[in-house]
Automatic annotation (TrEMBL):
<keyword id="KW-0106">Calcium</keyword>
<dbReference type="GO" id="GO:0005975">
    <property type="term" value="P:carbohydrate metabolic process"/>
</dbReference>
<dbReference type="InterPro" id="IPR014718">
    <property type="entry name" value="GH-type_carb-bd"/>
</dbReference>
<dbReference type="InterPro" id="IPR008183">
    <property type="entry name" value="Aldose_1/G6P_1-epimerase"/>
</dbReference>
<comment type="subunit">
    <text>Monomer.</text>
</comment>
<dbReference type="Pfam" id="PF01263">
    <property type="entry name" value="Aldose_epim"/>
</dbReference>
<protein>
    <submittedName>
        <fullName>Aldose 1-epimerase</fullName>
    </submittedName>
</protein>
<dbReference type="InterPro" id="IPR011013">
    <property type="entry name" value="Gal_mutarotase_sf_dom"/>
</dbReference>
<dbReference type="GO" id="GO:0030246">
    <property type="term" value="F:carbohydrate binding"/>
</dbReference>
<dbReference type="GO" id="GO:0016853">
    <property type="term" value="F:isomerase activity"/>
</dbReference>
């Protein structure tokens, strides 16, 4: 476990996963083991969303990729690259065509092994400044590599009637629950405020959109995404791809209290 601290802010990280963000001892992050989700955060890459209806296949220029829900990045382990009292850097690397064990097999998937026909490097960096935590994602790889990116943090809810404020519109927890597993789309938005016992602001750079998901009342996932996967049929997921350039591609999520 790695701990960062600055003033009244405290952060705890477990192998690259954000498992705690506290300000004045108020916990903003969903706690693993609590009802709702087994994780606290994860990344969705190189695809977002389910692919079971497409036989777990995604067509890309270099061939057919075998992917499961939200891609294969989360099946890889982070390597610690650098750390201090207020920042930490983790990385993952993948070599094109390498078979990755699918943790959803066999209980929730027919695919034991996942693969992607491109090599890439993925860096996750945490920077703690006064009253905010910046999480940045840097991606590099083959020019033209298609990809989607989503960040999937879960926030702890402390009251019965939290409000998600996005683009001047109020979204209730009941509205998110009603959408179910598809997740509620919040299009063309770079700032969301979760209004609860304490408010937290989720600001992004590069993603462009959010989706919100929960199946319980004690947590809600507010997820920055580059593409809402339910906008198209699973067989057409390729329509939502971005492409890597010859420069490192950077996305940011800032949690401000």
């Amino acid at each position: 476990m790695i701990h960062l601290r600055l003033g009244e802010c405290k952060v705890s990280l477990d192998q690259g996963e954000l498992v705690s963000f506290k300000h004045l001892e108020h916990e903003f992050i969903h706690q693993k083991g609590s009802p709702g989700w087994r994780s606290a955060d994860t990344e969705m890459f190189p695809i977002i969303g389910p692919v079971n209806e497409a036989n777990f296949r995604v067509e890309v220029p270099e061939g057919t990729a075998i992917q499961d829900q939200h891609g294969l990045l989360r099946e890889l382990d982070y390597v610690l690259e650098d750390k201090s009292d207020v920042h930490v850097v983790f990385s993952k690397t993948y070599v094109a065509g390498t078979k990755v064990k699918n943790s959803k097999f066999p209980a929730k998937s027919t695919e034991e092994w996942l693969s992607w026909p491109y090599s890439f490097s993925f860096t996750k960096r945490f920077d703690l400044t006064e009253n905010q935590l910046e999480i940045s994602f840097s991606i590099s790889g083959v020019v033209g590599m298609p990809f989607m990116l989503g960040y999937h943090p879960a926030f702890k809810i402390h009251t019965d009637t939290p409000i998600i404020l996005a683009s001047g519109k109020e979204i209730t927890l009941d509205e998110v629950l009603a959408v179910g597993s598809r997740a509620l789309q919040v299009e063309d938005c770079e700032l969301i405020t979760l209004k609860d016992k304490r408010n937290i602001h989720i600001k992004t750079e590069g993603f462009g959109h959010f989706m919100c998901w929960t199946e319980v009342r004690n947590m809600v996932c507010i997820e920055p995404i580059s593409f809402y996967p339910y906008a198209v049929a699973q067989k057409n997921l390729h329509e939502g791809f971005l492409e890597l350039s010859d420069q490192e591609t950077v996305f940011k999520t800032i949690l401000k209290v």
